[in-house]
Amino acid sequence: MPDSLNKTLIIRFSSVGDIVLSSLLVRTLRQRFPNIHIAFLLKSEYADLVRHNPHVNRVIEFPSGGSFGDLLRLRRAI
User: What is the C-alpha to C-alpha distance for residues 22 and 24, in angstroms, rounded to an integer?
Assistant: First the structure.
């Protein structure tokens, strides 16, 4: 793994347990790469699970029950 990373995107659309357990990954990334920009992509209904994590720079919400068009808009936004 390189000594420096600029950005990372963590994608987890569902599974509350996996989202909560990923906080260890986020914290470890922040410790290893203090200047990294960490974004977390998940369904809107789970956004509050990571919204106040001090190690996450951006929370990207995908609408629950989103359509293929929503997915295409998300792709362009990312």
Answer: 5
